[in-house]
Amino acid sequence: MTDSAVEPFHVVFVCTGNICRSPMADVVFRWFADAAGLGDRVASTSAGTGDWHVGERADQRTIDALDRHGYDGNRHRARQFTHGDFARNDLVVALDRSHERILRGWARNEADADKIALLMSFDQHARTLDVPDPYYAGPGMFDEVLVMIESGSRALFRQLEPAIRPAVAPRGGSRRV
To answer: Which domains does the chain show, CATH number per domain?
Structure first.
């Protein structure tokens, strides 16, 4: 089997309306995977627990914050999380504990529930497990939230990287089984 035949690791980031925090997390996590040369080993997306913004672009303040930090959030379109997301993803990452509670309530079985984690739980230096919702705040809060998401996403990627990095055969001979 070639490396290109390896199924990528699938992760979905979940917030309330899928226009602020989860699109940021998806874009940032994707950047870490691409920067490490592992973009083909990871498939990421985002979703919301609610359906208020389905089909809409990310909040303009989200796009602006991402742009100020060197990311592109222009391709995002909001969607609502569905039960099918449990089947399609290896990891379901909630941005705060309210999302985690909702997702656990939607989990149909233990396998679904076992896929749920809080983004900030991966960051040992995090001061809180909840990424605050910047929707009702000013642009500065979007930048603060993005910094938190960068830290959590970096920690998550570092934890996943050894498992998704392709095995390399030793030099000078074939691999022993």
So the answer is: 3-164 (3.40.50.2300)
